[in-house]
């Protein structure tokens, strides 16, 4: 397993061979072909966990690709197909995480930080130091009085 | 003599130990000097930094030599090399795995220290002493880590293997000779900025002079980081064989986060240098930038993240890096919390001013970095809380990054042209109206011309890119007061910024086009078959075998036609590496400025046919071309003459800058 | 500005550090929790490896369902332990996953047969329904045919010590 780590420490994980078996999945409609490609890219291979279904050559990835194709031929929608796999393999297989109570922070986190940051910017500008105002006549008089006092003592 | 050369690995290790000792002295002595106000102690910082670098270089060279002479008694060499490996790859195999890449990492740290020692003549001695002392601390930590948990000089004794296990074929490639060193230079370079920030905090002098000293170092590290990331993306694109160039993989994310924060830091430093503002913020960014590059190291090497890492992760290593991270990042953040100035800086700016735009740009870059961190760590958090396993992948990251980059591109142009202190939206609007109109029209035109349908992503991506280029060029034109020959007088710093900003637009154009208009087809092809994709026709001419130095491959020759004209002869390969038996796909790519034609081989099928993947990727090169522009821009800014002034009064920067409003 | 605010980055970092500390301690990061736990065992009509006869149900008593294949080295490693379990009277049903019946029968002859019977799943269809992504995997199924637990990887004494109470409590 050493060589896996070897790649990892550099920059790119467990890279594999290009998957070039698209000819196995003929579509009449180019839009369906694009749908298939998108689905395969958005699903994660449960075995070689750093790859999507489109890029993985693990046997289970091949099976899942076949299944996705089969379900598409049955006329199922993208959501149904993803749902089918999630029911069997869990949320892990979808690269696009579901929107649920425990993922609220994931989906809204960056927006929250942005809003919070904007507020902070406003506060920072508000907190700007005002350039010192010239002393009023009364203050001048007090200053003079203090100076005199200091001299005399 | 033979005995001595047989002991070379021990000398390498000895050099590493010496480097550790020198680094330890470098960490303590100059700082004691600062404490006691004794210049002769502080003066030790520079020679110690040089000595440390020298020992580290010796150590690295010895390891490289062990690779070149196939000394398989060294375990690391035996694991990552092979007699049949071409010499260039033997050298790059030095950083082909964990131990050696760590040695490269610390050697670069030493070299940055050396650079600081050499190019710091204009700095006060106590500053140099503090900076080099802090860099010494980082060195001590990481050299200790190398020696303790990942010693590349460990021996396979008494029985040494006759043959090495070979370098991972994926890494036997030009991209992998240059990519890791470049990226590491960037990661490690941020340590200089970090050291400057801590030194300023320690010395209580977070001022414009500090910002001016930090800037060239930040830019230097940033240039390396930019190039390193681009090289990595380029390598993945042609070497992994399926034409992807960015995967939002944890390892990539680990490199993008420090880049984003370093970019924010560059701009924040500009404000601190010119206007003496945002000091606490800038120093925090400097700490963040290096912390994130350490965090990347931790995530990649400890096995905390993605499951595949678990195989090779060594718990001892993970704990060690976590401890290093804790001391380094935790310590610096604690110092920050105690010592950072809480008094708001003197100096006013209005809502519409360069300061505000740069702050907004900082915020957006930080939100982007935060999004990456969140997406990378969220699955871990969910898992530890017992809520199951999640994946956060490209779909989520793209969803987050489209709005952030659009906003960012809008602000970049405004920030670059707005005046310090106060500006007027009307002025900005009237000066950029031409760019706005052009952006909308061209943004609309591109998707309609490309395939006749309205595509919002393309409209947005192209629109903001044209806006950015247009507004930037209008600003140049205005500052040159309509005369071409005045442009060079605008200053290297300003022109570098212009180049870098145009680079951002170029990358956005590339990303937009290649993500929306790439076409591909997977086909079963045999000799004589042709396949059409877009405007191109691919003809399978013949197939054959190639004997490489350490691999054999199946190769296919394709002729690519545009209409009747042959435009390329492409030869993708499927290689089998002898030592490891791994199979690699070598894609064949015909490159041009406006599109890449990408052919890769899949599985062999019956009757001499092959599964073939054909792709046409418009504007692919622009993605990396933009990065080259950004790096060149950074390089130009670094060469600006004000960074080469010697011995200047520390506080003249603010005054000087008002006269020089143009530069950023 | 209040100095307390300046501690926020430090606190954030400490929280992250704790997260990593837990992360380092975690073992077996590749196992995916199965969403099928508490759900009925999927329906199937497949042949048995032994006789080639069609079968469509599990025995109506608590069983281990073990997914294995002759191409899977870990399965070989766990086989001896399965034999032991069978001797202790634990009922085990095998699913021969993406394999060849002939090879499977040879294997069972050579290494012993701990299984009540083996369901042949040459195309991995049932495996896909079960969310199998790598052999060996083992399911605990109760007498009503509900999946109660799943273990990914080889079954050994350590793992069994954890699963046994649950298996024995099952009806």
CATH homologous superfamily annotation of the largest domain in chain A:
Cytochrome C biogenesis protein
Give the overall average pLDDT of chain A.
Answer: 76
Low-confidence stretches of chain B: 307-312, 646-664
User: How far is the N terminus from the C terminus of chain B?
Assistant: 59 Å
CA-based shape of chain A: rod-shaped
Helices and strands of chain B, in N-to-C order? HHHHHHHHHHHHHHHHHHEEEEEEEEEEHH
Q: Would you tell me the structural class of the helices and strands of chain A?
A: mainly alpha
Number of domains of chain B: 3
Q: Percentage of helical residues of chain A? A: 55-70%
Number of helices of chain B: 20
Q: What is the number of strand segments of chain B?
A: 10
Largest interface, C-beta closer than 8 angstroms, per-chain residues: A-B, 57 and 92 residues
Main β-sheet description of chain A = none
User: Which consecutive residue ranges of chain A, at least 5 long each, have pLDDT under 50?
Assistant: 1-18
- What does the radius of gyration of chain A come to? 32 Å
Radius of gyration of chain B: 27 Å
Q: How does this model look, in words?
A:
The complex is a heterotrimer of chains A (153), B (664) and C (171). By secondary structure, chain A is mainly alpha-helical. Chain A folds into two domains: 2-93, Cytochrome C biogenesis protein (Helicase, Ruva Protein, domain 3); 101-152, no CATH class. Chain A contains six helices and no strands. The radius of gyration of chain A is 32 Å and the shape is rod-shaped. The model of chain A is unreliable at 1-18 (pLDDT under 50). Chain B has three domains: 1-166; 168-337 and 357-414, no CATH class; 519-620. Chain B has helices spanning 2-6, 8-36, 39-42, 45-68, 75-80, 87-92, 98-118, 125-149, 174-203, 208-239, 250-275, 279-302, 315-339, 354-384, 394-417, 425-451, 456-479, 492-517, 620-638, 653-659, and strands at residues 519-525, 530-533, 536-547, 551-562, 565-570, 573-577, 583-586, 588-591, 595-604, 610-618. In chain B, strands 2, 3, 4, 5, 6 and 7 form a six-stranded antiparallel beta sheet that branches. In chain B, helix 11 packs antiparallel against helix 12 and helix 17 runs antiparallel to helix 18. The model of chain B is unreliable at 307-312 and 646-664 (pLDDT under 50). Chain C is an alpha/beta fold. Chain C has one domain (31-169): Glutaredoxin (3-Layer(aba) Sandwich), CATH 3.40.30. Chain C has a five-stranded mixed beta sheet with strand order 5-4-3-6-7. The termini of chain C are far apart. The interface between A and C is medium-sized, with 16 and 18 residues.
